[in-house]
Structure formats: C-alpha cells, structure tokens
Amino acid sequence: MAEVAYEPVIGLEIHVQLKTATKMFCGCALSFGEEPNTRTCPVCLGLPGTLPVVNEQAVRYGLEIGLALGCELAPRSIFHRKNYFYPDLPKGYQVSQYDIPLARDGRLGDVRIHRVHLEEDAAKLVHAGASGRIHSAEASDVDFNRGGTPLVEIVSEPDLRDAASAAEWLRLLRATLRRLGVSDVNMEEGSLRCDANVSLRPAGSEQLGVKTELKNMNSFRFIERGIDAEIARQEGILRGGGRIEQETLHYDVRSGAISSLRSKEEAHDYRYFPEPDLVPIVPTAEMVERARAAIPELPADRAARFAGELGLAEGQARLLAFRTEVGDFYEAALAAGAGAVEAPALANWTCNDLLAALGEGADPAGSKVTPAALAGLVGMVSAKEISNSAAREVLAKLVADGGDPAAIVAAAGLGRADEGELAAVVERAMADQADAVEKVRAGNAKAIGAIVGAVMRETKGRADGGEVQRLIRERL
User: Fold this and answer.
1) What is the DSSP secondary-structure string of 260-328?
2) Tens of pLDDT along 266-291?
C-alpha cells in the first residue's frame, strides 16, 4: 500500500505594536528599554475605580491597516473582555475585540486575511535566568511598562502550505506595515510577534486536521525552522498511528525541540463579554477617507511597478520595494541621473555594490553617498568613461568620505585607458606572457586570464576586462 502523502496547512496570527505616543486606554507614554515599571498609571495597572479611554490614533492606524490589506471595515465594532489569569494581566482580563472586529475579509498577495482587530498588549514577564535581579528558579519579574501598549492583531486564513512561503509572506506583511508607518515592526524588540497555526491533512483532502499553535517566534529564520520542526513532529505522530493533540507549543531555537505549553484554548474558555466601560467604535466617512488618503504606494504595488515599468529583475524589484529606505534612495538616484543611467544598471549597483559596501541593514540615506553621486558614478560606467573595477574603487571612496565621483576619478587618475594606450599595454603583456599566449593558441582558453591580469595590473584597473580580451584575441 502506498504511503499517505500529507499536506501542511498553515495560518499566521501576527501581533503588531502600534507606533502611537501613548498606550491603548490611558495616557502613559510608550517606551522600550526604560527602567521597569516607570511607565504605568492606575488605568494600565488595573486599579479599582479606573476607566479606560480609547486611543484615537490607534483606531486611525487600525483603519489604515484594514484598508491596506483590502479588508471590509466594520461600520460598528466593539471591545470585549478576554478573561484569563496570568501574572502579566493585572486586571485578570485583556481588552480585545471578539465577534465584531475592526476589519475582516481582506487579502495580501496570495493569502486571505480573516480579521484585523485592536487590543492591548500584556505586561512583560522576565523569567529566572533572564534577569540579573532574579536567581530563584521559582520566580519571575513582571515589567508593566509594556502593559496596555496598542496592538493590532492580524489573522490570516490557513492558505499557506510550507514554512518558506509563510516566512516570505510575513516579510511582505512587515514591509507593508513599515511602509504604512504604523509600527517599527522590529521583531527583535517584540513590536512584531508571530504565532503559527499548523496542521496536516492527506494531500488532496479538503478537511482540516487538528491544529497546534507555535507561540511568539521572533525572527523569520526561527519561524521557518519552527514550522518545519512542527510539520516533521506531526507527520511522525501520524505515521506512527498516533493522534495530534490541539495544544499551544514552544519552539526552542537552540535545540530545535518542540515542547508543550498548555492545551489549546477555545473561545468559550476565555468567557468573552462586551467591555462595559468602552463605547463602540463607529468610524465616520471622514475618518475612513482620511485613512485611505494616508496609504502610500505599498510594497507589492511598488515591486510590480519596478518590474513592469523599469524592467528590473524580480528579486531586485522585491528588495527595493520591501526595503523602503533603499527603494527611496534608488528612485532619488534614478531621478538625479535621468537620461544618463538605465534603470536596471542603477538597480544592480544599488542592490549589489552599494549595499555590500555599506554593510548589512544600512540605510543608504544615512551614508555619505548621495543619490546624485551614485547616479553619476553609474553614468560614467555606462558611458565607458571608467571601468567597473575603477568604479568600485570610486564607490569605496564615496562611502568613506563622500564627494563627487568625477572629481575622485580625475584626482586618482582612474579614467579609462584610451584605445591607443590599451593596445600598447596589451602588446607588452602578450610579450611578457609568451607561455600563456602559446597555451591559448593550443586551445586552452583559460590561459588568457594570465594575459588579462597583466594588463589590468599595469593599467591599475582602468581597462575594461571585456575590451582587453577582445584586443588579445584580435592579436592572436
């Protein structure tokens, strides 16, 4: 009997801390890295007799996110109390949205969006071993600074089928949120956190399997590795004749092991009921239009424009669109070099040479290289005024000190060797590399490298390698 082939079914739940000035239901300033428990008040500490007030900017950001994800906005949505006991919830419940979320039924790329809703973040638990203040294995610190931070939760439909696709889609979502300016979406600092719901079913089946939930993975690499590990764990259980239990799991990034945190809760476990201290959210037409007008060109649309209108390779188009700061720098350079540089050539220099010279994650706008300088350098290469190797030398000087590429070329004598000078250098190199000449004539094509190398050394990189090879072959 043929072995059953299983198909993974994956949905993501993403929590996004909003970049507002204050918390969701009180006036405490948001902070990261502040002294613990210094950004609190009676409201976010859940003291008796306090009343919450909804953060208007958080609602506006929620509307922008819903519209950007193609969702249908609710004409009226309400808050609920999600009841559960945990040390990071001083009230004993979390204020969230349940059956009437702010937005629903959207799409980003090939993945449908189930819902988008507003809620407050919990406080931060620092467990034994993670804090120098705690040495007992039975104790944890609670920092209430994070408690009450505005969150948007985005829940996808189970449309993803492998871990790599899940990580790639999350990259698109993060780039979209960053482009909106609603969050810094910094996974290392916890402003973007992702849970993954994973199940397996026989390939071709429409029925969903029992799902498990992987909690709070904080990097794309760990998300991909964690989902792959859970898929392998579930497949091993099913092939061994076992049953998958619905539970919440933890992926240990160091060991790669999956461990159980608790049985997976159902909605009724939280005893949701409407929050009596908050009025419903009823967005006006003016609020919706203002939110719609605030949405810029989004990464997916920008990547399509770069590929379709500018003829960029798909990978470069995505890089420039997903990294907003790099895309902005590229478009500024393209405008500065209008008529003198071709879009694909400039994209190659931006995505490859410039980013490599600046270092991983650097913002070109914060460097000493101006868009006009990069455009001027690429224009000189395109006009064959300097060689590629000389241009990279100029780029290194621009990264270190800034300046004008033409001035750097003139001062360093990096201008391209003229044909007469180059022909003379080729003649001398062929005379000096007689053995290599004979090997090339005998059919060893690789031997030409020794002659080319000699020419490049004498011209100090001012010659074009392709042109050098052409002159050598003519003389052979």
Assistant:
1) EEEEPPPGGGGT-EE-TTSPPB---HHHHHHHHHT----HHHHHHHHHHHH---HHHHHHHHHSHHHHH
2) 767 889 999 999 999 999 999 999 99
